[in-house]
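Much of our argument rests on the idea that a fold can be written as discrete symbols. Part of our work consisted of pairing the sequence of a single chain with a tokenised description of its backbone. The amino acid sequence and the backbone structure tokens for this protein are reproduced below.
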Amino acid sequence: EFVPQYVAIIGSGYIGLEFSDVYTALGSEVTFIEAVDTLMPTFDPEIRRLADRLLIKPRAIDSRVGVFASEVTPGIPGVKPVTIKMIDAKTKEHVETLEVDACLVATGRVPNTLGLGLEAAGIETDRGFIQVNDKMQVVKKKDDPAAVQGLYCIGDANGKYMLAHAASAQGISAVENIVGRPHVVNHNHIPAACFTHPEIAFVGLSEEQVKAKAAQEGFQYGKSIGHFRANSKALAENEGDGIAKVLYNKDTDELLGVHIIGIHAADLIQECANAMAAGSTVRQLAMMTHTHPTLSEVLDAAFKGAVGMSAH
């Protein structure tokens, strides 16, 4: 109905970032309100830094970090503003009150599981999420592996991975298990994407997670980066900003995670997700031919760099 001049977005995850992209494109000014001490806390740190440079700093966006929106008072468009009181996330003391034209709450979702009769069946939820085992069978308690016979739960209601394509994968898996073909979804191989300009996408572990895993399991991890600025198609489209980062086990060449920020990152990540699901190593991927000239060559450069090769 109208485009607000000044928008506050509570939460700076994927949804918040996507809406900041939309609203700034429409001419709005945006303020992020984030409870932790950094914006985009769920992103890989290196991708986060690039996203700050490409998606935040060039636009009419500012932020308040380390604060909670403790109270939001609705306004009337054109008559009175929306009022947002903020408190320090640690001390809980009032720090600031913002007046904006609109406020978007993008801090997550609550499962709509009340009224399903779960309590009558002795099924306990965790913050409303229905607990399931690896076969998508409902279990009565989080720490109880015994399944409720004939009852399955897929999608956002189980809270495992709140993405539409993850729900679809879980549904297929549930049906496979129902008809007697055992199947388990590996959620670590399911990609995710943020539809901004440029896009962000990832699959697998972040560098922080890989570093912790390497320390715990006693292996060396490697990192290789392909640059969009070295890709002819990206340059032809005037979209040379961005990277594709490949994380892998140096001892086994196992692919552990891939993070991309750049044009069509959401499409490019699928190759990486498929490779991880198939168990392809970075060495095998480095020897696969990528079409020229395409954006996929950004990944080719990263895969080859991981094993000491050069794409050019």
In short: The chain has a mean pLDDT of 96. The two ends are 52 Å apart (CA to CA).
